[in-house]
C-alpha cells in the first residue's frame, strides 16, 4: 500500500488524497530515497519522451537535418498545441520533406481549454500538429529519414508507430539501454499516440534519468544525445509544454538544474544533473494535474539546492492555495508530511 | 484503508486504481451494503443539491412562483451551461424579478469543453448563468423571494450564500433533517459556489437519499418536496447535467427508478425508490469523471432490477472500453471485482 503523497484540503479538513510512490536514484543505481513500491512496473507514458528522442540525436538525424533547439525540445514534449508549437512541428516536418499527413499520432483538441477556445474562436479545428505528441512523432519521422536514407521516405515511414518498424525498434532499444530493464518481459500496452508503451519499475526509470542527467552508464552516443536534448530543452522550455504548464515554468525558473517531464496517468520523471540524481513518481490513481505536479515540486525542493527565490517559487507549486470562482480561499493542495519527511536530507 | 473500487487498465495491466467507500442504506437506517469506511465525514459537495433544494418546494416558493419541471430540475443541477440551461435559469430569475447580477455563485467557463468552444466560436464569454450551480442559486433566490415577502428583495437576498442568512439557514436545516447528522459538529468548508459545505459520513448521506426516495423519516412537507423534485428531474433529466453527462443519460434511460447526482471530488449519491434504498459513494482521490461514475454504474447494476437492455446500457458505463486518438482499443475502465462481490445480492 503506497502512502499518501498529496492532500487536497477544504478548510481544515482533508477532502481527498493521492497515494503513490517515488524513487530517487543516482547514476550508479543506488537508491537515495524510496517512498512506496518502486519495484512494480508502471507505464511511464510521456514522461520518457526524452529517452524516446535519444535516437533522434544518436542516429545522426538531428545533425543531418540541422535541427535547432526548438525542434529538439519539442521532440521531448507534451505540448499545448499553441501556435508556437504547431509552427515548430510543421518546420521539422518540412526538413524531412513530409507534412502533417505523415504523422500517425492522431488528432485531438489541445488539452489546455483556453487554447481550444482560441482555435474555436478563430473558426479552426485541430489537426495532428495540435496533438500533444506531434513533436515526438516529427522526431520519429526525422529518424526514419536517416534510417531509410535513399528509400522513398513516405513509404518507408508508413507504420512507424508499429513495434517492428526500424524507427520504433531504435526507440525501444534506447529505452532499454537507458532503463536497464528487460523490455521483452515488460507488460506492454498501446500509448495514446499509438506507439508501444512498456511497464517499467520506478527504480529503473529514476536510474535512467540519473543517467540522462550525468551520462554515466550510457554508451557515448546516447550520453551525447542526452546532453544535447537536455540543453535544447533548457534553452527552449516553452516548447516542452507551454503557457502556464509546470514543466515549462519550472525549467524557465531553474534552467539546466532540472529536466522534468510529466506523463499521463500521474507519472513524472526528472533528471537533477547538479546532484547526479534521477527521480520517478507514479500517483496510484493517475492524477497528473494536481497530484504528480505537487509531488514533483516537493521532490525538487528537497533534492535541489535552491536559493530563497527559487525555494519560494517551488513552494508555491508544492503548497498551493485554492480559491473558488469568487476568489474566496477554500483550501489547499499540498505535499503530505510523509512525503516531506521521507525526502528530508 | 478503503479498497479499490475502479481500475484503469492498459492492455492487460492495471495502470491506475481508485480507492473509495460506498454506503447503501434503507430508509430505516439499516445498512444494506458497506464498502470501506462509511463513518468518516466527507464533503458531499454538489451531490446533495436535491437536499439543498427541499426548501424551494417546502417553503411554498415553487408554488408561489409557478416553477415548472425544468426549473425545479435545474435547481438540483450541476449543469453544462448549454443554451437550454442558461435559458431556464434566466427564466427562473425573471419570476423573482431579479436577474443574473443577483447570482452569487461566480462565473466559470462551462466544464464541458465542446460547450466552451461553442461559446468562444460565437464570440461570447460566460457569465454567472453558465456556472454549473446557477440553477441551485436561482432556487435560493426563489426561497429568498418567499422568506423575504414584502421586503426589498434585492437588499434582502444580498449575501444569501452566507451561513447566517435566512435562506442558507433553511437550506442547512433541510440538510440536517434529511441526513440526521448534527451539522453543528460537522467539519465545515466553503464550496466552489461560496455556500457553506459540511462534512457528513457516507452512512448518513445514503440514509438521506433513502428518505428522499421513499419519504420515510421526513416531515410531511419535506417528503412532499422530495417527491416533487424527483418527479421534476425524472421528467427533465437534461436539466440536471446535460449533453453526454452520466446523470442525464442514466435518468433518461431509467426514469424515476434512479435519482442520481454527482458531486465534486469523487462524490456520488443516489436514491433508488423502487427498492427503498439510498446510495452514497466517495472516491478517496476525488476523481469524478471516471471513478465515481463507474462505481455508481456498478452499484445501480447491482441494486436495481434491470431488464436486458437497461443492464447492457449500465454495463457500458461500469465497464468502459478505452480507445486512443486513432480509435485503437488501448484499455478499459471498470468496476473492481471487489466492488461487484461486495454488492452482489
Tell me the layout of helices and strands.
The structure is a homodimer of 345-residue chains.
Chain A (H helix, E strand, L loop, with lengths): L3 E7 L2 E14 L4 E5 L5 E2 L6 H4 L1 H5 L2 H5 L3 H6 L8 H14 L16 H9 L12 H14 L5 H5 L8 H14 L8 E3 L5 E3 L1 E2 H13 L5 H16 L10 H9 L4 E5 L3 E6 L4 E7 L4 H16 L4 H11 E5 L5 E7 L1 H7 L2
Antiparallel strand pairs in A: 1-2, 1-12, 2-3, 2-10, 4-7, 5-6, 8-9, 9-10, 11-12
Provide tags for this entry:
homodimer, 345 residues, alpha+beta, eight-stranded antiparallel sheet, two-stranded antiparallel sheet, 15 helices, 12 strands, globular
Brief synopsis:
Chain A has 345 residues and is α+β, with helices and mostly antiparallel strands. Chain A has 15 helices and twelve strands.
Any overview of this molecule?
- The structure is a homodimer of 345-residue chains.
- Chain A is of the alpha+beta class.
- Helix content of chain A is 43%, strand content 19%.
- The first copy, chain A, has 15 helices and 12 strands.
- The first copy, chain A, has helices at residues 49-52, 54-58, 61-65, 69-74, 83-96, 113-121, 134-147, 153-157, 166-179, 202-214, 220-235, 246-254, 288-303, 308-318, 337-343; strands at residues 4-10, 13-26, 31-35, 41-42, 188-190, 196-198, 200-201, 259-263, 267-272, 277-283, 319-323, 329-335.
- In chain A, the strands form 3 sheets. In chain A, strands 1, 2, 3, 8, 9, 10, 11 and 12 form an 8-stranded antiparallel sheet that branches. In chain A, strands 4-7 form a two-stranded antiparallel ribbon.
- In chain A, a hairpin with a 5-residue loop joins β11 (319-323) and β12 (329-335).
- In chain A, α13 (288-303) packs antiparallel against α14.
- The radius of gyration of chain A is 19 Å and the shape is globular.
- The model of chain A has no long low-confidence stretch (mean pLDDT 97).
- At the A-B interface, β2, β4, α6 and β5 of A face β2, β4, α6 and β5 of B.
